[in-house]
Amino acid sequence: MGQSYEMKIISVSGIHWKPNVIHDTPNLYVAIDIDGKTVYQTNPSRKWVAMWSQICSLSVESPSSVIALQVFHRSTIGKKCLAKKEMEIVQLLETDEGQKDFSVVLNHVEKSARGTPEPTLVVRMTAIGHVQAAAVALANATQDIGILPNTSSAVGRVVNTEAGNNNDLLSNLGTVLSRLTIIGAELSKIHPYSNVAWRVLFSVYEAVQKQTETDADVCRLVQTMADVYAFVKDIESASEKITRFAKTIDALVKQTEECALFIREYTGHGFRVRLLENILSEDSDKIKGFVNVFQKFGESLNRGTALEILYVSTKALAMVEKTTQTQKLDSLKPVDMNASLRCECLPRTRQEIRDLITNWLTTPPGDDKPGNILWLSGVAGAGKSTIATSISQYFRELERLGAFLFFTRNKSDPADVIRTIAFHLARSNTYVASAICDAIDKDPALIDSPIHTQFQKLLLTPLITSQSHIHGPIVVVLDALDECGNAESRRTLVSLISNEFPKLPPAVRFFITSRPDSDIASKFENQIKIAKHLLDITIPSGLADIRIYLDNEVGELRKQQKLGSTWPGELKMDALTKHSSGLFIWASTAAKYLLHAYDLDQAIESLLNKGLTTLDDLYAGALEVAGPWSDPTFVREAQAALSVVILGKTPVSAAMIDALLVPKHSSSCIFDRLGCVLQWAPGQHVKILHASFSDYLTDHGRSGGEPWFIDPSILEPQIARGCLHILKKELQFNICRFEDSHIYTTKVPDLSERSTASISPHLLYSSLHWGSHLAVIGSASPGLAGISSATPLLPDGLLTDLKDLMYTKFLFWLEIICIQQKVVLAIDVLETVAKLAKDYQEEELADFATDAVKFVLRFAPVISHSVPHIYLSALPFAPRESKVRKQYSLWLVPSKTVDIQSSVSSQWPRLQATIEGHSSIIHSVAFSPDGNHIASGSADRTLRIWDARTGDLLVGPFNGHEDEVKCVAFSCDGGKIVSGSYDKTMHVWDAQTGKIIGVPLTGHTDRVNFVCFSPNGKQIASASLDKTICIWDWDEHSSECNTAPLVLKHAAPVRAVAFAPDRDQVVSGTGDPTGSGDSLVQVWDTSTGKPVTGPLEGHTQYIRSVAFSTDGKYILSLSHESARIWQVCTGAEVIAINTPIGTDAYSAAFTPNGEQIVVGYSDTLLRIWDVQTGALVSAPIDGHSGAVLSVSVSPDGMRIASGSGDKTIRVWDAYQELSTAIKVNAQYIGANDQEIMQMYHPGCTGHTNTVYCVAFSPRGDRIASGSWDNTVCVWDACTGTILSGPLRGHNEAVLCVAFSPNGEQIVSGSNDTTIRVWNVQNGTMVAGPFEGHSKQVSCVAFSPQGDQIVSGSSDSTVCVWAVATGSLVCKLLGAHTQAVRSVAFSSDGAQIRSASNDTARVSVTQTGVLVEGPWTLRVADQAYIIPFSPDGQLIGAPETHGVVQVLDLRLGDLTRLEGHTGIVYDMAFSQDGKWVVSGSEDTTVCVWDLETRILVAGPFEGHRDEVFSVDFSPDCRQVLSGSRDTSIRVFELTPDDTLKGAFGGGSLCQDGWILNSKDQPTIWVPPWLHHGLYFPQKLTCNP
C-alpha cells in the first residue's frame, strides 16, 4: 500500500537572479514530482527569499520512488525552471538526519547561474497515517475553497458558469473529508484497508484543486458522496454508527476508494483536457453507476438508524467482535513486578533527595509546581534505582502506591507498560477498577491495541471518570525508563508520558527515573509540566552517604571474616570513600571485590595503592592501560576527543564531540577505553570525574612529555575549526522558521520548541563558543614570514573557514546569537576575528569584521528583539558602503513600508547607542578605565552604570543621595565610582554591586560640582560652590577617608577640578554667574596645598570644565564663551576656541592623544576641535534634543559619551561622519547647520535652531518658516524641497512670518525689533527693515490688498506700515498694556484686529480708533500666539495646563478643549472656523472640532521637542508645525476628517519601532535616522 508523508515547503533562498535573462520581478513556486508525475505545487511568491509554509501530503509506492523538487519562475511568456534536485525518497529521508526542518541543496538549471552558490530549499517531511493525510487534504481543500478562478468554455459538458461550481465541488469534498476524518480512527477496527480513506480524499482533492472548470456529472457524483457521509456529525455518533453498520460502512469505504480512482483517471490532466478528449459514453455510464451505488448506500444507512440504534448497536458490536471473549482485569496480562529483592537506601542515606521527592509527590500541583510528573535523571551507577525502590516502599506503607514498575535492559517491553500500570491502579482503587473494567467490556481487544489507544481507554477516561473518588496522591513509580526497550521501540511510550500523562488527574503522581538518554531528554526537557531533577554525584552529602554504605558493607565483611573491629582502619576507609568520586556503583563494586577476595589486605592495598600515591601517578597509570598510546592514530584521535571534554565551554555529548572533531572520527570507542577517568554513557554528556584531571592533562610541567598531553594553543583552534565546519553545514536563513515579523522573538509562543527543533546541540554550541576557542589561542608562531612571534598559531584552513563564515553565513549565525539573547557575545567574537585578521595581515577580513561589529552595535536594539528584522530593518538601514550590506545585498528584503533615499550615508553614522533610563536631565557621564562601561549621574538623584557598547543597564540605579547627582567618576581600576551631589556630600560606590562603600564624605557647605579620583586611586578631589576644593586621602583597606581633607580655598565658587596624570597636582576652574568672582584657572600642589601655576586669566564667564591632557603638558578650560588650552609649565595660552554664536558651552574633554577636544553645547550639538588650529575636525555631532551637559571620551579615543538635558546618554563614534536621510512613503528635506555643516556638506541647507514660526502660502503650495538661527526659509509644500533661503538679514531670532495675498512676498518680524519683506522666488529682501517698535516683533500680517503690513510687539503697540515705502501709516499707542500676540486685517482691510495676553480689540486701520471691544482675556503668559478666526468672531486663548480655549467675542461663550499634557504654545483656525489646531510643549499637534468639542485628528507625534507654531493649509487638508527640534512637519487630513495612509493610527514609538494600525511593530528605524523620519500623513523638513 506504500507510505504517506506530510511535507511542508518552507522557503527557498540563494536563487541566482539575472533580470536581463529572466525577469525583473520574481514569481517563484515550487513543484513536486513523484516518479515523473507532478503531484503538488505551491502558490507563487514574489519575494527574492521566497517563503511559503505550505503543507501537502505525498503518497509513494516505495522508498526508492524518485522525488523531484523544482523551483520555477512564472512570467507572461511561460514558466522557467531555475533549480531542481532529484533523489530517491530514502535519500531525502537520510538528508533529514532526524531534524524536523532540513535543507536540500538544489542544482542550478539556468546557465547564467553556473559558478554561483547553489540555492537551498528548506522543507520538513514526516511520515503520517491515513487520518493525518486526510486532515492535510481537508486543510488544503478548505483553504482553496472559493479562490479558484473560473474559465468559461462551451465544449461538451464543461460547466460554463460562475466560480461557484468549483466552490460547491470543493465544499462537498470538504464535507466528505471532514466526516471521514471523524470516523478515521474507528475504521481501523472494521476495515483491513482503512488507509484507503486518506487516498480517497487526497485523490479527489488533487483532481479538483488544479481545475478552473468543473464537470456537471462529477459535481453531482461528489454531491452524492457528501450526502451519504452526512450520517457522521460528531465523534460520538460516529462511534455508534460505525459499530452498528460495520459491514455497510466497510463496503462504503471500498466503494469510495474505487470511485476516487476513477475520478483521478478521468481528470488526470485537468478537467478541460480530459473532458475534451474523453467525452465517452462508458465514462458517463460509470459516473451514473457510481451515483446510483452511493444513493443506495445512503438509503441503507437512513432506513435503519432511527429504528434500532440503541438495541442494534449492542447486537452489531457482538456481530463485529463475535470471536472476542469478554475479560476483566486479568485480561490485561500485566508484567510481574517483584520488588522483593531490590535494595533500598540504607537508613540515614540519601535523605535529602528522598525528602525532596516525597515532598513533591505529596504536594498538590500549583503555579510553581505544574504537572504531575517528577523526572530524576543521573549517570549510570549514581543510585537512582535504589532511591526509586525506597520511594515506592514509602508510599506502599502509606497505602498510596498505585504502581511500581522497574525495567531491565533487553527484558522490558514498552508495549506492556500502559496495561501494567492500569492493572495496578485498578487494584489500588475500586472506583478506578470499575471504570477500567467498563473499558474492557466495551473493547475486549484493548490488550492488543496501540498503546496510545490503551492510554485513552485504560488510563485517561477511567481516571477522569473516577477522579472524584481518588483521594490523592496515588503514586506511580517508573524506574530506569532508559532500560525499557531501546530508543526506537519506546518512542511512542516516551511521547505519551511527555504529552499525554500530564492530562491525567493531578492526584495521580508519577515518579520516573532514567539516564538522560537523548530520546528521553529531548521529550522531557522542554515539557513544562514535567519537573526535573538531576542526581548530582559530586555534592558532599553524596560522599557522606557512600561512607555510610561502605561502613555497612565492610562491617558485614568483618563479621563474615571475623576481622578486627577497626579493620581496615579509618584512613583506608576515608581513602576508599574519596576514591569513589561520588559513584555508588564504584563503592558497590569495591565492596563486592573485597567480599570475593582471597587476601583482603592485599585486595584493599590493590584498590588503594593508586589512590594513595600522587594524583598524577594515578591518572597516568589509569590512562596508560586505557589504550595503545604507541599508535599515532589512537593518540591523535584520543587527544582530539579529550580536548573537547577538557577545553569545551559546556558539557558535551559524544555525538556533539564527533561533530566537532576535524578530521571526523567516532569518540565513543575512545571514551569506552577511558571510563576510569570519565563519566560517560551513550546519549549523555561526557564529564571528567574531577577538575584535577583537567589540570593534569593541560599542565605541560605535569604531563607535557606524555602522549595524552592536551596543549590548548594547538587544540583550541582545532575545536574552533570544528565549530566553523558545523556552522558552514547547518546554518541557514530563518533557522527557526519565524512566520510573523510583528512578534518580538522573545514573545513567540513556541520559541523554545522551535529552537530545540531547528538548532541542534552541536550547532548551538558552535554558534556560542567558536569565538571563545579563538580568543584563548596563546601559542607563538615561529618562523612565519611577516608575522610577529606573538601572533597566535592557527591551523591550516582556519582563516579560510573564517572567511567562509563571515562572507556567506554571518547573518545566519547572527540569528542564533539573537535567539539566544547573546548580542554582546557577537561583538566580542567579531572583535576577536578582526584582531586575528589584522595579526595575519588579512586586511579585507579585518575590515569586514570591524564593519560587522558596527552593524551589530548599531542594530542591537532591534535584532535582539526580533530576529527577522536582521533582514527587514538592520540590513536595509545599513550604510550603502557597509561591507555587511554589500556582501549580503541579495538578502535585502524590499519593503513597501520604508523608502531609503539615495542621500542615506555611505558610511556608518556616529551614533552607536541611545541610552534611556534616567527620569531627569543627565548632569555627568564618565567612561570606565577599560572603556566598556559608562557611569551617569542625574538630577533624578541616582547613578547608573551602562554597557558602553550596547547601552544596556548593568548596575543601578544607585540610591543614596538626597538631591541631584552633579558629577561622577571612576577609580583607576574601575572598581569604584565617586559621586558628588547638590546635597553637599560625596559617596563612593562599589561599581559591581552599586553598594555604598564606607560613609558619605561630608565637609562642603554648598553643592558639590565636580569629583575625581587620582591616577593612583589614593585620593579623591571634590570641587564645590562653597569656594573650596577638598583633597581626600582614600584608604583602600578601610574603604574610607580616615583623615580630614586638604582644603584648597578660592575666591569664587569652584565648578571644576582635575588631577594631573603624572604628578601630585590638580587644576581648578572658578567663577560666578553673577560676576562677583573672577573666572580663573589655577594649578595646585596636592602635597603642600600651594598654587604652582596661575591664576590663568582669559575667560570672561565662569568656568564649567577643566582637564589635563594625557601627557600632562596642557590644560583645557571651558566657559560659556570659549574653550582655552594652556601650557602647564608656563601658563601661556595656546589657543582660544570661541563658542559659536547663539549657543553656550557646557562640558569639554581631551581626546587621549591630546590633539582634539570634544565640547558639548546648549544647541544640542557636540563639536570636535583641533587644539592646534582651532578648526573643527568634523561636522558637529547631532542627535540630542536638549543641551549637551556632559561629555567623556573613551580611553582608546574611539567613542564619545554625552549626557543631555533630554534625559538621554548617547554614545558616538569619535571619527565618523553623519549625513543621512530616510523617508517613509513621503519626501525628505535635509537641512543641516548653516554655519558649520556647509564646510562638510556644501549642498545641505536649512534651519539650525528652533523653528519658531511657520505659515502656509495662500495657495498652500509653499511654506515659510522663521527660526532662532535668525533666518527665514521657503519650502515646497508638496516635495519638501527648499526654494529660497536661508534668508539672512535679521540679527536675532525670527519670531513671525506671513505671506502676501498673492503669495509672492513674505513678511518677517524679529527679536531684533525690525520687520523685513522678502521676495519668495529669489529670496531677496524687497523692503525694510521697518523700524519703529522698541521690543521684539511677535506678530505680522499683510492687508488683503497686499499694500500694507500690520505688526504687533512686546512693547504693547500695533503698527501699520506701507509696503512700498516702509513708512509708518498708523501706530496704536495705549491700546494694549501687555505684549501684543496677534494682529490681523479685516476682509476689506478697513479694520485691524489685535490681541494681547489681557485684551482683544478691533480698530480702524488708518486712525487706530477703537471699533469693537476691548474684550478681556485670560491667557497663559507662555502662549506665543493668540489667534483670531478668519471671520474675527473667535479668538484662541491657550492655557498653562494643556487646555485649548476658544472665546466667542460676540456671545462671550468659552470653549475648553482638554487633551494636551503640556503648555499650549500656539493655535490656528481653519478657513471655515470649524476646526482649531494646537501645538504644545508635549511635542504633539492636535486638531479639534469646535462644534462637537472632540479631538478629530491626532495627537500627531513625530517632533522630538516642543511645538512652537502651527497653521492650517488653505484647503484644511493639512496642518503645519514647527518645533524646537529644528524640524517642520506637515500632517495630512482627509476630507472626511480622518487620517489617511497605510499606517492609520500608527506612529513611531519611543524605542524606534514604527507601529501599524494594530500597534504591531512593523519596521525599526535607527536613532540616527529619527530626525528624518515621517509617516504617510507627514512631511518633514529637518536638519
UniProtKB/TrEMBL annotation:
Origin: domain of life: Eukaryota
Residues covered by the NACHT domain: 372-518
The keyword rRNA processing is assigned to this record: no
Keywords, comma-separated and alphabetical: Repeat, WD repeat
Keyword presence, Repeat: yes
Repeat (WD) residue spans along the chain: 915-956, 958-999, 1001-1033, 1047-1094, 1147-1179, 1181-1213, 1244-1276, 1287-1328, 1330-1371, 1457-1492, 1500-1541
Annotated protein name in UniProt: WD40-repeat-containing domain protein
Organism, as annotated: Rhodocollybia butyracea
